[in-house]
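Minutes, project huddle
Topic: does the predicted pose make sense with adenosine-5'-diphosphate bound?
PN asked that the exact inputs be recorded in the minutes so nobody has to dig through chat later. Recorded below.
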Amino acid sequence: MKIGILSRGPKLYSTSRLVEAAKQRGHEVRVVNPLRCYMNITSQKPEIHYQGVELERFDAIIPRIGASVTFYATAVLRQFEMMGVYPLNESVAIARSRDKLRSLQLLSRKGIGLPVTGFAHHADDIDDLITLVGGAPLVIKLLEGTQGKGVVLAETKKAAESVIDAFSGLRANILIQEFIKEAGGADMRCLVIGDKVVAAMKRTAKDGEFRSNLHRGGSAELGKLTPIERQTAVHASKVMGLNISGVDILRSNHGPVVLEVNSSPGLEGIETATGKDVAGMVIEFIEKHAKQGRTRTKGKG
Ligand code: ADP
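Predicted holo structure (tokens), as shared on screen:
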């Protein structure tokens, strides 16, 4: 097959592992920077151009889209879909998963466990909102944050009010969330491909920190999931409409709660912690499922 990888960083671990795995399995593979793709939007023969010429036809495309370029890169992916190229994750599902509020609403509608979460637009409504999510301690999150940036633990109502006040002064969109203290600064990252968790790692925050992100100094080890955690991860990925995802789960005393469903999960941490060839499994999934025009949305959504 001819596989394209939409990525701005050919040297990044995940991208280079996917290239390596595709080659190993006998495929042709090319990394394409989504920000350098340009296109004509026409009902006759949609095209994508790259570095001055029309891009060759791929059988499948693997989107590795960074949060900061979601808008343009999903438009590029949509164009591939319009041309009938099979996307590992569809543009609509990626855009959906990038909207934290929308994701939480979709997950809750399907009965997936979530931390109690609140959001409000107006500062005057914050007092009641804090009560609504059960009071302090609580976690305050910037909607645009990634890698644990903009995730703050407020131990008291006073602290919560001043953080919320500061964020709203900056016109930042935030949500507030029940603090799952019993998770003990650890979460489970579940790598889901299709309807299976193919690898799982337990991430633990460094001392004095509650965020377990590896970028925040957290450490990772092989994770052993309970059947219900496995089920939750697969269900969450499915609700978002993703073929591959990284589902973050906290162990709360009301069962597993989903924090986030990531549509471009990094492979370095999980391959290192579990010793599994996740990149190989991604390519294997594509071999089984890629067919021309096989997008549920046909790029329309
Ligand atoms: P990001 O998307 O920026 O990684 P997350 O919402 O995943 O932000 O939060 C980062 C980390 O903070 C999580 O991996 C988890 O360890 C911790 N965390 C986030 N929300 C909560 C919560 N409600 N209760 C306890 N810990 C949390």
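Observations noted during the meeting:
- The radius of gyration is 20 Å.
- The mean pLDDT is 93.
No decisions taken; revisit at the next huddle.
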